[in-house]
Every structure is written in structure tokens, then in C-alpha cells.
Design brief:
single chain, alpha+beta, Thrombin, subunit H, six-stranded antiparallel β-barrel, six-stranded antiparallel barrel, 18 strands, about 15% helix, about 20% strand
């Protein structure tokens, strides 16, 4: 569940390869097909994830030149062209029916089927048992061309829970509710909490998230890091001047780029608090390429970030603990809390009040059943015992599961908890935010004379 998306100029290639993965369940390379840089000929468990990122990239292709076209269907007639810069990216971007990134009538190819009601199964990946439309599926098909596989999920298109009144049990959208929310921003309350399990949205049939009060501890010490290199992830205070997040959030194509600004939610008296990232500590074994290609380094997907203002002196902080240390019970019996800045809840902190550890693995990972999605990377998994809040893991990614739904993985705190104090004091760390090249994590261990 990587929150920083890779860019690629090979859209058609990515679509072909991604679809081969999704339909066959493995990564397949056609004879003579040149793979993008960094991809393996071997069936790595997350090769398909990286290919998906090239399909659903945020930097969209330039439109193809075309004149006015018209289509007529059960819902009426639509006339337009592909003059919008976001045209021909498989996602409808016209207002009212799509994302709204384009003016009406300027994203014809991506929108005409859903506007006129002529949705069909014309995509080459249709009828393979998996929804391939953007937003609600893999993104390998154009909107409206995988009707059978997407089924009732099409009702969730372009809807989210970004309204501040979301998850309160009352439909607040105009026309169908109270009107306190903007259109399409109160999805759970107006259209139900049933959710498909997709490549981006990790729901287990039902969205159990709620919005958290960021003026109240522990939710007040969970915030967002906006990176100078682009993108954002969730992070939490684990010492007065230290944040915990995911390593893949600060790792970009083999380079470590942690520079950015951390900001809490706006529920605190006087507004949000913020601080600048000034240092980073990664696992000595962290390697971005190896992490992306397989499951071997999932347990190293954590990062500690030192900030220039000790916000924890005012707000408090969470206590990083190994999973066994944090509870005397079996890991599978532990009740978890989790919260992050999900892509679909806007500026609101959303999370789970009661989810579970499914399995604690020997590679410093654990699987869980918390409802998470893009933007939650780096978010804390917490246990509360006798008023003390402990971080036992940070949200990482997912693994393919041949026997059922994907397995959602968090990197446990066992590896970084013993390092927080020394990092907070400046005894270990990179010593600054100079960019580092691939293969040079330079993460340090505690001093031997400790």
C-alpha cells in the first residue's frame, strides 16, 4: 500500500502486464516484451503492484487529437472530444459523473459509456472475475468497459467519505440527505459500508472505520508528513522529537528522500502543530528494490524521523514496543487500534477502534484485518493497556494470497523500538538530510558501549 506512486512513460505496456498478472495471478512477460526498469522476469509477489502504479499514475498522458464525437444511449446523448489534458487515461474526468478534473465534453473517450448508459464488457480484461476499472478496481480497463466484473461496485465510483460528518450514521449529502456534506462525500452513510476488496482499498467486506477526534490523545499525535519530493504518508510521535512511519514513504527509486513537514490534525486548541523533518533512521537491511520485488524485507519497512520541534513535550507521544512486550496474551487475541490519513477521508483522520492481529510472523511482520487504504502507509497499530498507548507496528503493504484475499502486512516495532532513545538524542542517525544513493541506507545500530 505504497503512498508514493512511481511514474512511467510505458502506459500501454503497464496495462498489458498488469492485466496479465491480475487475470493469471502471476507476473507473466510476453515473448519479446521489454520489461520496465526494475521489474523482474521472476514472479515476485509485488511486481504487479509496481506495474499497477504505472497504470494509475498521477501524471496523466497528453490527449490524442480528435474532433467532436457523439454517442446516444438509454440515458441520453453525449457530445464531446478528447481535448482535456486528462483524456484517454481510462478514468472519466468530466464533472458530475467523473472526477471533475476536465470541463464537460472534453473527456469523451473515457466518459461516454457511463454518461449515455451504454456500459459494456468491451475491455480485453472483462469477464475475468476481477473488476478492472479505475478507482474501484485494478485500473487496466477504461471506465464502463468491465461491466460484469465490476457489477454493483460501479455505484461507488467517484464517491468518498471526505465530509467532516462522514461515518455518523446520517446521510448528509444534498438531495438525498441533510445537505451538510458536498455531493459524493458521505459515501458510507448514504450508500452503505459494504466495500469490495480491491488492489488499493483493503476492506474486508465492510468498512468499519470511524473519524477520530484529533484534539484527543492518542489521535492528536498522529499526523501527516508532506514530503518535498511529493506525496504524503501517515506518521505518529513515538518520542518528543521522533516520528515513526514506513520506510517506503521516504524511499524513492533507490534514493532516500525524507525531507518534509509533519503536521497534526486540526482538532487541537489553537490549530494543528507542525515541525520539519531533520534526520532519518532506517533498518540496515532496507532496500527499496528488493522490498518491491518480493516479501523478504517487509519487516524492514519502518523509518524513524527526527523533527526540529519536540512536539511530544506538549502533546505526549506513543510508546514503541515489541508485540510480545506489549501484551501478555497471544498475538491473535490482541485488540488493535489504528488510524491514518486515508485518501478517501480528505483531511479527516480515520481508523479502526477494534481490529486484530491475524498472525505474527518471524520476519518482524504481522498480518491484520484493519480496514486500510492508500495514505495509511506508516500509520500506527496501537495497543492500550492501563492507560498507556503502545505502538506495536506501522502499516506497510500487502502480499498475494493464493488461497484467498490478499494478506495485509505491518512492520512490527520490535526492530525499531530499542533504537528510538538513541535516535532522539542524536547518537545514531544519518546526521542530516543529504540525499543518499541506492544501496547506502547507512542506518546505524546503538553504540556498543551503551
Amino acid at each position: 500500500m505504497r503512498c508514493l506512486l512511481s511514474l512511467s512513460g510505458l502506459a500501454a505496456l503497464a496495462a498489458m502486464a498488469a492485466a496479465a498478472l491480475f487475470s493469471a495471478g502471476v507476473y507473466a512477460s510476453a515473448d519479446g516484451l521489454a520489461l520496465p526498469a526494475g521489474f523482474s522476469n521472476q514472479p515476485g509477489s509485488r511486481d504487479y503492484t509496481r506495474l499497477l502504479q504505472t497504470v494509475q499514475r498521477p501524471s496523466k498522458p497528453a490527449p490524442e487529437a480528435s474532433g467532436q464525437r457523439t454517442a446516444t444511449g438509454p440515458l441520453g446523448t453525449h457530445t464531446g472530444d478528447d481535448s482535456c489534458r486528462w483524456a484517454n487515461d481510462r478514468e472519466c474526468d468530466e464533472p458530475g459523473i467523473g472526477t471533475g478534473a476536465c470541463e464537460a465534453g472534453t473527456d469523451f473517450s473515457d466518459c461516454w459509456r457511463i454518461i449515455t448508459g451504454l456500459e459494456d464488457d468491451s475491455c480485453q480484461w472483462a469477464n475475468d472475475g476481477e473488476c478492472d476499472e479505475p478507482g474501484i478496481g485494478t485500473g487496466a480497463c477504461t471506465q464502463g468497459t468491465d461491466r460484469t466484473d465490476c457489477g454493483e461496485m460501479t455505484g461507488l465510483r467517484f464517491r468518498n467519505d471526505s465530509c467532516e460528518f462522514a461515518f455518523n450514521g446520517v446521510c448528509e449529502e444534498p438531495g438525498i440527505g441533510t445537505g451538510r456534506c458536498a455531493e459524493r462525500t458521505d459515501r458510507a452513510d448514504c450508500f452503505g459500508r459494504e466495500r469490495p476488496l480491491t488492489i488499493n482499498d483493503h476492506f474486508f467486506g465492510h468498512d468499519d472505520r470511524i473519524l477520530m477526534d484529533t484534539g484527543v490523545f492518542p489521535w492528536s499525535v498522529i499526523g501527516r508528513i508532506r514530503f518535498e519530493s511529493g506525496g504524503q504518508c501517515t506518521a505518529s510521535l513515538v518520542a518528543p522529537n521522533v516520528l515513526a512511519t514506513a520506510a517506503h514513504c521516504v524511499s524513492d527509486e533507490g534514493r532516500i528522500r525524507p525531507a518534509g513537514r509533519f503536521e497534526t490534525g486540526d482538532g487541537l486548541p489553537g490549530g494543528p502543530r507542525s515541525a520539519r523533518v531533520v534526520d532519518v533512521l532506517l533498518d540496515p537491511l532496507w532496500d527499496d528494490a528488493q522490498f518491491s520485488a518480493g516479501d523478504d524485507l517487509d519487516g524492514t519497512d519502518w523509518a524513524l524521523l527526527r523533527i526540529d520541534t519536540p512536539l511530544g513535550d506538549e502533546l505526549g507521544y506513543l510508546h514503541p514496543s515489541g508485540l510480545a512486550e506489549a501484551s501478555r496474551d497471544r498475538a491473535e487475541d490482541v485488540t488493535l487500534r489504528q488510524a491514518g490519513y486515508s485518501w478517501d477521508t480528505g483531511d479527516n483522520l480515520s481508523g479502526n477502534e477494534s481490529c486484530r492481529v491475524l498472525e505474527a510472523m518471524n520476519d518482524n511482520t504481522m498480518s491484520h484485518d484493519c480496514d486500510t487504504t492508500r495514505g495509511d502507509s506508516g500509520s500506527p497499530f496501537m495497543i492500550e493497556e492501563d492507560g498507556r498507548w503502545r505502538v506495536v507496528a506501522v502499516d506497510s503493504n500487502f502480499r498475494r494470497n493464493p488461497d484467498g484475499p490478499m494478506i495485509y502486512i505491518a512492520a512490527r516495532a520490535d526492530r525499531f523500538a530499542p533504537l528510538v532513545e538513541d535516535f532522539a538524542q542524536g547518537r545514531i542517525g544519518q546526521g542530516g538530510l543529504r540525499p543518499r544513493g541506492p544501496g547506502k541506507p547507512e542506518a546505524l545500530k546503538p553504540p556498543k558501549n551503551r
